[in-house]
Amino acid sequence: MVTPPPPPVLAAQEEADGLSTPGRYWAIVSVGLAIAMTVLDSSIANVALPVIARDFGAQPAESIWIVNAYQLAIVISLLPLASLGEIIGFRRVYQAGLATFTVASLACALSHSLAVLAAARALQGFGAAGVMSVNGGLVRFIYPHRMLGRGIGINAVVVSAAAAVGPSVASGVLALGPWPWLFAINVPVGVAALVLAARVLPANPLSGRRFDFVSATLNAFTFGLVISGVDVVTRTAAKAAGTAQILAGFIAGAVLARREWNRRRPLVPFDLLRDPLFALSAATSVASFAARMLAFVSLPFHFENTLHRSQVATGLLLTPWPMAVAVAAPLAGWLADRFSTAVLCAAGLLVFAAGLAALVVQPGGAGDFDIGWRMAVCGLGFGFFQSPNNRMMLTAAPRERAGAAGGMLGTARLTGQTIGAVLTAVMLHLMGARGETASLALAAAFAVAAAALSALRWRRS
To answer: Model-level pTM?
Structure first.
């Protein structure tokens, strides 16, 4: 049996060309275990919300905080923790995040009230952010440059597979036991991942600067106030309060930008965003994930309300998309190590747009196969975009800024998802049943815009 090698003593030993085998395989398994748990926990709680609300005698609207607390904690801490990874090391931030996530999972399982569970979920979100913030940076130091696309493709497969099986895992666990088991199963997996991580993850060069607590606080206020304000405006009657939160968030963001703009290594990577290649890659990511969220939020309504499918059938009809991503992502990552990333991304996004357009124009009596192949086309296109674009974002930044690039990668994804969710809510509110197909058409337009942004990178890459 192969034993995982001990961690490297100096980052310089591995910096030039990543880890050698079998250490590379053990390291990507360690990273994959943690990222799979954090992605799974983003979806399994959704399935359990009705059960949890009944157990605690809570209203459905109150139980939403079980999801919101987790997501909000990730959003406000992603960039600060990525910056911290450059200061104290990706490995230490990853291990601390994984340990926090594991302890918080146990706290979730033992929670005796909705308030305690929401607090534990927030702590779990901070732990997940520790893992997500340095995930891209770690992959860059695990794989040699010539194989980086392959490593990112494997990472994308893990994320897609976890997202695809999340609802099924949750349903299976709930069929066998009570909802606390959903969180308790993270504990042994988290402990195993921690033991493995302590032995196999690479070190990275440290920046030697101090952590900027003021900028981290401003960052938290910016993202926290804007996203919570958007949630208040779109889901409640307190429009004025929500608007005030959004304005306060933009003011905090303006102060943060003024403070950080001219710094050599800012917490918010303005230095990287001044690079047109990196900025275009980030913009492409925001537009594409907005398109994805527009589709993923509107499709369940479309399948159930317009096409009259059951909840079980809807879950099955959504599955071809992540399955196709899991097939396309590793191939796209392999191709990205050999061909133009900009062209691969643009081609994938046009296929993605075509799949979305096919969903818009499908007949009202479409069968499951007709829907399924359209969903698979969307997944294939998105998979061909995701791995190459992530590779370009990571490689456009200097190696010493890999943490900031990885943090920005996650922030771009979350920003796009937030935009897509808000736009879907607006379309459904304004247009009723017609908002479902209108959201899909808007998603196709976002995908085309993302393809155009990607094509602009061709001469720069």
So the answer is: 0.76
